[in-house]
Design a protein that fits this description.
97 residues; alpha+beta; Alpha-Beta Plaits; two-stranded antiparallel ribbon; binds iron/sulfur cluster
């Protein structure tokens, strides 16, 4: 078993002050072959198998915790059919009046 040093078990002291990027996950449902790799390997368990059937006759993932996504892009890397990608959500510009 690996012993994780105490100093990296905790979030950084300024964690609350830092602005964390928010993710926007894009899934091309009909391109998915339902292998489930993205669901299995997402470290934050952002995805789950959905109930719906796509054009290829399989169940694509569904996005259940987009707010938990850490933009690691692991889902994109493991997807054999280029059916999922993640971008940083752009903040809406505030109206200038
Ligand atoms: S980018 Fe990382 S955390 Fe976000 S859905 Fe993909 S694998 Fe999960
Ligand atoms: S890794 Fe790609 S093909 Fe496999 S379930 Fe996820 S989106 Fe579909």
């Amino acid at each position: 078993m690996i012993n994780i040093p105490e100093r990296i078990k905790h979030a950084a002291l300024d964690n609350k002050d830092v602005k964390h990027p928010r993710a926007e996950i894009h899934l091309i449902k009909d391109q998915c072959k339902g292998c489930g790799y993205c669901i299995e390997y997402c470290p934050k368990k952002v995805l789950e198998e959905s109930e719906e059937i796509n054009a290829r006759g399989v169940r694509p993932p569904k996005i259940v915790h987009e707010d938990q996504c850490i933009l690691c892009h692991f889902c994109t890397v493991v997807c054999p059919d280029f059916a999922i990608f993640v971008v940083e959500k752009q903040e809406e510009e505030k109206c200038k009046t």
